[in-house]
Write a structure and sequence with these properties.
With 127 residues, the chain is mainly β. The chain has no helices and eleven strands. Strands 2, 4, 5, 6, 9, 10 and 11 form a seven-stranded mixed beta sheet that branches. Strands 1-3-8-7 form a four-stranded antiparallel beta sheet, with no helix packed on it.
Length: 127
């Protein structure tokens, strides 16, 4: 049974930082693109970042470039999202996801293309 479990969310002031973790079990993350999405109330799930199997290629949503960094530790079967310079508009539930896709292609940015999902972790940024 595949499980993705996020942790590291919380309440932070604007300008602060958080580091999210996504621990995977039941699958080998080195065979998957791993992505992070966010969903605020009343909005659709939005792509934030993705990373290929060895961390050599990383992709970001426009509004987080230069502020967020995605990384992975295949030995720990874990993916991370370091979020710096947080803004109130970053407030959302953040979920990690796994996509079984050729590493020679870029990852999808549509949530419907991902195969497995975690339950999400709440990130709240106060002004």
């Amino acid at each position: 049974q595949v499980q993705l479990v996020e942790s590291g969310g919380g309440l932070v002031q604007a300008g602060g930082s958080l580091r999210l973790s996504c621990a995977a079990s039941g699958l080998n993350v080195s065979n998957y693109y791993m992505g992070w999405f966010r969903q605020a109330p009343g909005t659709e799930r939005e792509f934030r970042a993705a990373i290929n199997w060895n961390g050599g290629s990383r992709y970001y949503g426009e509004s987080v470039k230069g502020r967020f960094t995605i990384s992975r530790d295949n030995g720990k079967n874990t993916v991370y999202l370091q979020m710096n310079s947080l803004k109130p508009e970053d407030t959302a539930v953040y979920s990690c996801a796994a996509e079984n896709r050729s590493p020679y292609l870029p990852p999808h940015r549509r949530d419907s293309e991902y195969d497995y999902w975690g339950q999400g972790t709440q990130v709240t940024v106060s002004s």
